[in-house]
Amino acid sequence: MSAILYLEGGARGPDSKDLQIRCREGFRKLLEKCGYRGRLPRLMASGSREAAFDDFKTALVGSARADYVALWIDSEDPLKDIEAAWNHLLLCDEWPQPEGATDDQVLFMTTCMETFIVADRAALAEHYGDELQVSTLLPLVNLETRSRRDIQDTLTHATRNCGNGYSKGKRSFEILGKLAPDTLAKHLPSFVRTQRILDRTL
Question: Are 24 and 40 in contact (CB under 8 A)?
């Protein structure tokens, strides 16, 4: 089966090549840890959520359509129904469900990629060392109900004394590749859903 995932992440423009490579590398490492080595989807770093959606729509109607085409994006807001992906995008972004698309073609980082990072304290400690202020991070219970701003702010605050304090872009994708899928699955229902869908489709 051929598969393509359009990722939210990486920039577009003349200086974006390095960031796109790092984005794909971070997601590739995470997917390999999930057990998909040898059957990885093609990873396309689209940049913004809107660009990922546009790329997805183009791929749906393209002549060389893969067997499985999907988005992997931030949900931005907490999910009312984890399985009703297109309903969430209609309410949140006013994105209509493209003809022929299914809910299984939308994979969410709820509410953002930083939720993944905050969920894995061991990976954070390995990456940041003793200067990481774990006590200032949000509790692990119900992380996906937290706002995107709260998740991002707490991560920035917890790493503010680290020499390589958290920032979006290159540093975020470095940490992404270090995360443990078992840990994410323990705390994040949306990640469990993503694994379930990919197990069935790849």
Answer: no
- The overall pTM is greater than 0.90: yes
Number of domains observed in the structure of the chain = 1
> In the predicted model, is pLDDT for residue 14 greater than 80?
no
Report whether pLDDT(131) > 60: yes
Name the token pair of 26: 């971070």
132 Ramachandran zone, left/alpha/beta (phi>0; psi -120 to 50) = beta
Stretch 115-144: mean pLDDT, rounded? 96
Name the residue range of residue 105's domain: 3-112+185-201
**Alpha carbons 186 and 183: distance in angstroms, whole number:** 5
Distance CA 79, CA 85 (A): 8
**Residue 147 maps to a domain:** no
- Answer yes or no: are the C-beta atoms of 179 and 109 closer than 8 Å: no
Q: What share of the chain is helix, strand, coil (3-state, %, to 5)?
A: 55, 10, 35
